[in-house]
Structure formats: C-alpha cells, structure tokens
C-alpha cells in the first residue's frame, strides 16, 4: 500500500478508514443518503479499526546490530517496536531490560563468555497478548589477546635500507610499529607474516617494536625486534703495510679496512698480489679483527719478495 510503513500503522489505518468511508459514499440504495451516513455506521468503522489494531502484534525491527567480533562481554543491541510491551529473552542471551517502548529500544545483554552467539532472540508481547519475535544477528565475543613472536630477525650488518623480518601471530589484526622503524604493512594474518620496513638510514636499530590489535580490539604484548645495523657505505682501506713507496723486504702484505668486514669475502680470489709483469703471485690470505671497528687482511706470498720489485696488491673493494 502506498505510504505503508511497517513501523507506523497510522498511515494504513487512515487509508483503510478513508477507503471504507469513501466506499459508503458510492452506495446507491433506496432510503440511503450517502451524504448523510448515520453515525452508528462510521462509529462501527472506527471501533473495527481499533479492534483490528489490538489484534495486530508488535512489529519489531533491528536498528543497530551487535558488532562482531567484539571484546565487550556485555554488548548492546538496538531494535524498534511500534508498540509497548514486555520483553522476553530467548537463546543464549539474557538482558535486564524487561519492557519495550514504542520506538527505538537499547538493550544490554548480561555478561557473556567467549564464543559465537547465533541463537539469541527477543520477544515483545503487548498488553493484549499479541507478540512478535526478532532474531538477534549472529556475533562473536573475543577477549583473548593475540600473541606475536619474532620468527626471522632483520639481517644484521645488511646493506638493504628496506630490510625484511618475519613475525608470527595467533590472530589476524592491525599492526602498529614503534621506535625508529615503520612499515606500510599494517595488516597481519594468523600465522607467519613477512614485513618490509620503510627506508632506514645507516645506523644501529635497537628500539624497533611491533604490536598487533585483533579484529575484536584486543591488543597483544609489544615485542622488540632483535637489534640490527644497516650499512650501505662501501668500506675503504685505511692503511697498508708496507706503506706505499716503502723500500724493504717483506714476508707478507697487510691491508686494514675502515670497518669490520665479512671474513668469508677476504680470500685469494678477492685479495691478490701481482708482479710488475701483471702475473699473479701465489700465496695465502687470512683476516682478523683489528679492534672493534676494523678488519686487517694479510697476504702471505709462497716466497719472500722484495717490495722494491713493485708488486701490486688487489683488494676486495
């Protein structure tokens, strides 16, 4: 019917009344004057409509669903009713509100345990005993914090300014970063998650943190990433022995680098010695830390050579 709203029967009542009265005006009958309809007839129409409304059960409608998932153990639910009445709770959800008013009604469920609730409903019964049942939307109560752990640390002394690390989570959720690190990876799934950090400058990072908040709003403990250093600067040779232009006989040649080196990168392939004819000199190579910030590499020729023969070292730079 045009203009009919299940939440407001007044429009329907008015249309029924006007339609019925208008229909009487079209009756042609001896002795009946459509312009002077007896009051007992119109009164009977009114009383019939009133009695009809009494037989009409309350019309219930969901207004605001219970959010899901939620970490609220006493969640609220909003529904509307076109009639006043008494509330009865069905299923696994109970509430303290005992009566409903005409219009919107907010009810708060009693304390619920963790779990999914799909059988909750409310019944509203009016003063004439007519009732209607409204099924509450299915929802999940989750009050458990997610647990995260570092699985694979950022590579230490790496030359990647946007390094990766891996962490695990027991739940999906939103990731927040703290300290000197950030990332555009802000969503986590249950299981392992690989994160690429935003661009970092050369430095040591020991304060980077990760926190996850699950879909219900529970926030887990913050973890601090294993300290790591980003180094994108190429090393230099700070000194050699013998020094350039020295006039001496030597049994080895050494080179000290400006920073700590990867020992596996210093070998006879990367640290070579050639004579003035550009022929490679056979020998062995060792390396060792020289203090906390440098590395010294040593080349030992198979035979003792006179540096005055102008040998030329090749270094791993």
* Series of secondary-structure elements, N-terminal to C-terminal: HHEEEEEEEEEEEEEEEEEEEEEEEEEE
Report the radius of gyration as a whole number of Å: 42 Å
Task: Enter the CATH topology name of the largest domain.
Answer: Immunoglobulin-like
Q: Which structural class fits the helix and strand makeup?
A: mainly beta
Gap between N and C termini, in Å?
87 Å
**Overall pLDDT confidence:** 83
Number of domains: 4
How much β-strand is present in the residues? Answer: 35-45%
Query: Within the largest sheet, what's the order of strands?
Result: 4-3-7-8
CATH architecture of the largest domain: Sandwich
Number of helices: 2
Low-confidence stretches: 308-312
* Largest sheet data: 4 strands, antiparallel
Task: Tell me the name of the CATH class of the largest domain.
Answer: Mainly Beta
Number of strands: 26
Helical fraction equals: 10-25%
Describe the global form: rod-shaped
Describe this structure in words.
The chain is mostly beta strands and 317 residues long. The protein folds into 4 domains: 46 residues; 82 residues, Immunoglobulin-like, CATH 2.60.40; 83 residues, Sandwich (Immunoglobulin-like); 78 residues, Immunoglobulin-like (Sandwich), CATH 2.60.40. It has 2 helices and 26 strands. It has a 4-stranded antiparallel sheet with strand order 4-3-7-8, with no helix packed on it. It has a 4-stranded antiparallel sheet with strand order 13-12-16-17, with no helix packed on it. Strand 23 and strand 24 form a beta hairpin. The protein is rod-shaped, with a radius of gyration of 42 Å. It starts with 9 loop residues before the first helix and ends with a strand. The relative contact order is 0.09. About 2% of the residues have low confidence.
């Amino acid at each position: 019917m045009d203009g009919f709203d299940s939440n407001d029967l007044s429009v329907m009542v008015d249309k029924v009344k006007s339609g019925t009265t208008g229909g009487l005006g079209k009756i042609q009958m001896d002795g009946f004057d459509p312009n002077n309809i007896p009051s007992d007839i119109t009164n009977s129409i009114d009383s019939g409509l009133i009695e009809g409304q009494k037989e009409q059960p309350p019309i219930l409608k969901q207004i605001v669903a219970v959010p899901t998932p939620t970490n609220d153990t006493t969640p609220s639910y909003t529904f509307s009713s076109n009639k006043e009445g008494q509330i009865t709770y069905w299923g696994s959800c109970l509430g303290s509100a005992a009566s409903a008013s005409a219009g919107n009604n907010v009810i708060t469920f009693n304390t619920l345990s963790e779990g999914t609730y799909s059988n909750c409903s409310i019944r509203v019964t009016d003063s004439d005993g007519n009732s209607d049942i409204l099924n509450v939307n299915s929802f999940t109560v989750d009050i458990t914090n997610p647990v995260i752990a570092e699985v694979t640390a950022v590579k230490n002394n790496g030359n990647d300014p946007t390094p990766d690390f891996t962490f695990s989570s027991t739940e999906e959720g939103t990731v927040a970063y703290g300290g000197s690190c950030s990332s555009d990876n802000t969503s986590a799934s249950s299981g392992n998650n690989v994160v690429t950090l935003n661009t970092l400058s050369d430095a040591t990072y020991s304060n980077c943190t990760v926190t996850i908040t699950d879909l219900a709003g529970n926030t887990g403990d913050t973890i601090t990433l294993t300290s790591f250093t980003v180094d994108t600067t190429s090393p230099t040779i700070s000194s050699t022995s013998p020094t350039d232009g020295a006039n001496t006989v030597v049994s080895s040649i050494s080179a000290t680098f400006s920073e700590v080196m990867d020992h596996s990168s210093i070998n006879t392939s990367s640290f070579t010695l050639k004579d003035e004819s550009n022929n490679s000199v056979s020998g062995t190579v060792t390396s060792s830390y020289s203090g906390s910030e440098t590395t010294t590499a040593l080349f030992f020729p198979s035979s003792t050579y006179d540096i005055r023969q102008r040998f030329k070292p090749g270094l791993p730079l």
